[in-house]
């Protein structure tokens, strides 16, 4: 069966800096996978490399069976990928709804604006507000909603819970649970282990640009000691 994502021997550079060293990971259709690791471990660079946003890349990145290691970002997106970066990239000159409507449709089956508002009622209430006047949590909802509109079904989410109030983090957790039930495939980079732990099917731990540990959700209870060592959880 074709995997949603299969990465083999991935190496990536920013200029002369060699960041990723032979990264190997795979994600099944409909899975939620979390990349764990300390800051600087290479987790965000892995997401950026998948999207073609780093410098030089070597190895293999297959998306739904299609080799994309040498593809530009816009072609990779058309394979049904949605990337939500940590910085959110909300346009200050546009309203919340204009920000939501900005990206083009990439695939059939994108979520309607009304469905996004049902998922995030705050956004509907603030739809005419300037994008950067939204709270941090509302901006995060907007950034996620924007990629759901495009028809992307493989989502790369970078630290979506960071710095947000617990009530917003709970809303995002419900969103991920709902999206998984709808058949979305999700790869999360998360520092908030308590947020990620109940949501993910599998975990990869990164250190110094490499995968150093992987385990399933059912194996999590037995991994406490190594996670304390690797993450300081």
Helices, strands, pairings?
Blueprint: E1 5-14, E2 17-27, E3 32-36, H1 43-50, E4 57-63, E5 66-67, H2 73-77, E6 81-84, H3 96-101, H4 113-119, H5 121-125, H6 136-149, E7 154-158, H7 166-181, E8 185-189, H8 193-196, E9 202-207, E10 210-216, H9 224-231
Parallel strand pairs: 3-8, 3-9, 6-7, 7-8
Antiparallel strand pairs: 1-2, 1-4, 4-5, 9-10
Q: Separation of termini? A: 35 Å
CATH superfamily: P-loop containing nucleotide triphosphate hydrolases
Tally of distinct domains? 1
Low-confidence stretches: none
Q: Which series of helices and strands comes N to C?
A: EEEHEEHEHHHHEHEHEEH
Kindly list the characteristics that best describe this protein.
233 residues; alpha/beta; Rossmann fold; 6-stranded mixed β-sheet; 4-stranded antiparallel β-sheet; 9 helices; 27% strand
Outline the structure in words:
The protein is α/β, with parallel strands linked by helices. It has a single domain, classed as Rossmann fold (3-Layer(aba) Sandwich), CATH 3.40.50.300. Helix content is 31%, strand content 27%. The protein has nine helices and ten strands. The chain has helices at residues 43-50, 73-77, 96-101, 113-119, 121-125, 136-149, 166-181, 193-196, 224-231; strands at 5-14, 17-27, 32-36, 57-63, 66-67, 81-84, 154-158, 185-189, 202-207, 210-216. The strands form two sheets. The protein has a six-stranded mixed sheet with strand order 6-7-8-3-9-10, sandwiched between helices. Strands 2-1-4-5 form a four-stranded antiparallel sheet, with helices on one face. A hairpin with a 2-residue loop joins strand 9 and strand 10. The longest helix has 16 residues, at 166-181. The radius of gyration is 17 Å and the shape is globular. The model has no long low-confidence stretch (mean pLDDT 92).
């Amino acid at each position: 069966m074709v995997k949603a994502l299969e990465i083999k021997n991935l190496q990536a550079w920013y200029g002369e800096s060699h960041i990723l060293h032979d990264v190997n990971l795979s994600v099944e259709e409909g899975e939620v996978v979390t990349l764990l690791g300390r800051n600087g471990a290479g987790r965000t660079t892995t997401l950026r490399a998948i999207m073609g946003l780093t410098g030089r890349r070597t190895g293999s990145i297959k998306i739904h069976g299609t080799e994309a290691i040498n593809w530009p970002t816009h072609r990779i997106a058309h394979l049904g990928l949605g990337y939500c970066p940590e910085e959110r990239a909300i346009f200050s000159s546009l309203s919340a709804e204009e920000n939501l409507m900005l990206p083009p449709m990439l695939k059939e089956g994108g979520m309607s604006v009304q469905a996004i508002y049902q998922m995030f009622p705050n956004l509907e209430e603030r739809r005419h507000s300037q994008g950067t006047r939204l709270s941090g949590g509302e901006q995060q909802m907007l950034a996620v909603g924007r990629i759901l509109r495009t028809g992307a079904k493989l989502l790369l989410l970078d630290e979506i819970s960071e710095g947000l109030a617990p009530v917003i983090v709970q809303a995002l957790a419900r969103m991920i649970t709902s999206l998984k039930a709808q058949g979305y495939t999700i790869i999360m980079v998360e520092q908030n282990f308590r947020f990620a732990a109940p949501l993910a099917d599998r975990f990869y731990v990164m250190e110094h640009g490499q995968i150093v540990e992987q385990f399933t959700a059912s194996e999590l209870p037995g991994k406490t000691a190594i996670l304390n060592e690797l993450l300081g959880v």
